[in-house]
Amino acid sequence: MFDGLKKKLNRFRNDVEETAEEKAEAEADADAEAESAPADAAVEPEASEPAAAAPDADTDAVGDADAGSEADAVDAADAPADAEPESAPERDAATDADADTVDEPTGEPAADEAEPRESLASDAAKAALSEEDGDDSSGPGRLRRAAAFATGKVVIEEEDLEEPLWELEMALLQSDVEMQVAEEILETIREKLIGETRKQVQSTGQLVSEALHDALYEVISVGQFDFDQRIAEADKPVTLIFTGINGVGKTTTIAKLAKYFEKQGYSTVLANGDTYRAGANEQIREHAEALGKKLIAHEQGGDPAAVIYDGVEYAEAHDIDIVLGDTAGRLHTSNDLMAQLEKIDRVVGPDLTLFVDEAVAGQDAVERARQFNDAAAIDGAILTKADADSNGGAAISIAYVTGKPILFLGVGQGYDHIEKFDPERMVDRLLGEDE
């Protein structure tokens, strides 16, 4: 189920993880090179030669300065009284500098004696490094683990997500996810991942999985309510009306729910409001007989609202818990059929109106759900043939588009092949966590 979409989501997770890990390795290599640079400079021959030559240079400088002083004294005596001595400040400064070099330390370290640059790793990182001395791993890998241990590491930036997000958007649209829903998913992922910090116990894949989980859950779980609790708390008989176009499995879904309720201890009666389609009575009667259920039906061409009303009357008279009412397949553009649905709502006052469509219909199912909800508000949706759906676009999109939840998935042809829709389990399936 939804295998195609599952593969596309996993591809996005792998793409982001690969991008982030490559960047983390590059940063770690750069940090390692910066860490080793001062130590390398200290052992270079060129760095030590000035220090070795310094004493001789200083001695020569002092001797030259003394000789120069005597010559300058003779020249000064012959010069006019008002003449300013040339280069006197420089000569005095040089002499003072030489004297300071010989007699007194300046208090400042020489270039080759400068303090080493502060380590990029924190104290905690250094401690983590020292603890790993017995490990066979070394170099950038050790530095990267230590830095992650000490401070965490920003692994995902906006530019890292640009290409993977574009590819994910294309994948979602190809999987029949409605465009507005795809955009919402992408925006949530972007908000949750950009600037995210990975701790030592996490991997980038875990971060991406968490972001995908939250983004998918937010759109899938819109309007969700506890269906079983709603049925349990409602006054009996509870009336459920099923609507949608022809051929999507409404009648079979009604039979499956009759079996579902029977397992929970509820009694049910079926009412056929699909009074215009040839063979509709025969089809639903076969299901009723197979399940041992009472069917309320009128002659072809009768009033659908009257049939379902009779079903409610029968349930009240025979202490039946739930009425399951079928309706004619209709499109939102069919004014007559939509008027019938409105009349059923007015005459019967159903507790829940459920929209049924095929999961494999993809965006067509999403659009029909929107149109039916606009024309006559639905309370929830049921998707048939979910077991044959590789894309999952309808399952992801319908709740967000209509504001009404998906309640059940049809997963086969048997009466037991229906499962209650669980948003959390759906997300786990898509992310490969529900094996």
Automatic annotation (TrEMBL):
Reported function: Involved in targeting and insertion of nascent membrane proteins into the cytoplasmic membrane. Acts as a receptor for the complex formed by the signal recognition particle (SRP) and the ribosome-nascent chain (RNC).
Organism in which the protein naturally occurs: Haloferax massiliensis
EC number: 3.6.5.4
Domain of life: Archaea
PROSITE patterns: SRP54
UniProt gene name: ffh_1
Annotated SRP54-type proteins GTP-binding domain residues: 405-418
GO biological process, one term: SRP-dependent cotranslational protein targeting to membrane
Origin organism lineage: Archaea, Methanobacteriati, Methanobacteriota, Stenosarchaea group, Halobacteria
Compositional bias per record (Low complexity), positions renumbered to this chain: 35-56
Entry membrane topology: Peripheral membrane protein
UniProtKB keywords: Cell membrane, Cytoplasm, GTP-binding, Hydrolase, Membrane, Nucleotide-binding, Receptor
NCBIfam families cross-referenced by the UniProt entry: ftsY
GO CC terms: cytoplasm; plasma membrane
Protein name: Signal recognition particle receptor FtsY
Pfam families (UniProt xref): SRP54, SRP54_N
Family according to the record: Belongs to the GTP-binding SRP family. FtsY subfamily.
Biased composition, class Acidic residues, residue ranges: 57-87, 95-113
Stretches the record annotates as Disordered: 1-142
